[in-house]
Amino acid sequence: MDRKQTSGPRLRGLIVGVSLVTIVSGAACQASDDAAPADRSGAAVPTVTMTDEQMAGVTDHSVLFGQSAAFTGPSQELGLDMRLGIQAAFHEQNQAGGVHGRQLELTTLDDFYEPDSAYTNTHRLINREGVFALIGEVGTPTSRSASRLANSLGVPFVAPFTGAEMLRDAGLGSVMNLRASYYQEIDEMVERLTEDAGITRVAVLYQNDSYGQTGLDGVRLALERRGLAPVASWFYQRNTSAVKTAAVDIVESNPEAVIMIGAYTPVAEAIRLIREDIDPVFMTVSFVGSNALVRELGTEATGVYVTQVVPLPGDTSVPVVDAYHTALSAFDADAVPGFVSLEGYLAGRLAIAGLDLCGRDLSRQCFLDAIRGAGSIDIEGLVLE
């Protein structure tokens, strides 16, 4: 196939149009290679809930949160940036005296973006570190295994960095979603491609796990609503950049646009490979990590579009973004603002709101009920509902 075959019309600018929402819900199980293990011995996960009197992770002077995320490996920037935002929010609140006199603390463990490690870390954070709540888990397969364990023990699971539908089932009452779902992101993406650019030939590259499958399903549904179907779909394995086979298959279908459900390193590699032969529009969901993707692609980032579920991190005319900049600079003067750390900051602010609503008499159940019953939570003019 000749290099740079014709592609569909170009879109204009970065897509930022999916509302950020707070949904108190959990995850329905779907078949996948990353189903949560029972425990390390193979026994069933206990469904014992800590009693309010035990006040896990809470002292007279502090509240301890735990985070399991990727801090090394090909997805590490997502975990590092999510942690940075949470830390900035906690530091800001601590400098103001904490929440009802308690300082906020965060302990973190590296799960390498692998579900087994996420499960093990969650077990340790709850049962050995004694955290009050979990916050900022990064990824669908990892959140899938970790959220089930947290829910079985009644431990709040706050603002996972994933838009997976499975975390929106009311059966997981401990899960507090902050971001829009991938289905919402992808439907907006497909609407822009079809209505604004007149594109009808769409291919999909996806990660071979629950994250990628959710994205693929979302694309299929969004296209189906418009009387279309993907012209091709192919996958790569999580935590690898082995995308060459997928790229070849996609090139052969000659799409006008490629929707990519993956992490920044393999997505960048796939874009380079596909562009050796054709030049379609590339679009990816917010999980990819925009800052990291731009660093991977450099000047090749032109023509790549990323949907987002938070405001532009550079737009300080938005009050919550201005507050984020102030908090980020106070915590780390060298930190560069970005979409992921902004989402981490909002996650931290959501947790702070829940603690504040609960008052001095703090418990996990009170925290969950306070957020669930708030109706809406206003963070510097950004309303979560």
Strand content: 5-15%
Overall helicity: 25-40%
Oligomer: single chain
Shape estimate: globular
Key features of this structure:
385 residues, six-stranded mixed sheet, globular, five-stranded parallel sheet
Outline the secondary-structure elements.
Layout lengths: L22 E2 L37 E8 L6 H20 L7 E8 L4 H13 L5 E3 L4 H13 L4 E2 L16 E3 L4 H15 L5 E6 L2 H15 L7 E5 L7 H10 L3 E5 L2 H11 L6 E4 L5 H8 L6 E3 L12 H13 L7 H20 L5 H9 L4 E3 L2 E3 L1
Parallel strand pairs: 2-3, 2-4, 4-5, 5-6, 7-8, 7-9, 9-10, 10-11
Antiparallel strand pairs: 1-6, 12-13
Please provide a written account of the structure.
With 385 residues, the chain is an alpha/beta fold. It is built from 11 helices and 13 strands. The chain has helices spanning 76-95, 115-127, 140-152, 182-196, 210-224, 244-253, 264-274, 290-297, 319-331, 339-358, 364-372; strands at 23-24, 62-69, 103-110, 133-135, 157-158, 175-177, 202-207, 232-236, 257-261, 281-284, 304-306, 377-379, 382-384. The strands form 3 sheets. The protein has a 6-stranded mixed sheet, sandwiched between helices. Helix 1 (76-95) crosses helix 9 (319-331) and helix 4 (182-196) packs across helix 5. The protein is globular. The chain starts with 22 loop residues before the first strand and ends with a strand. Residues 1-53 have low confidence and may be disordered.
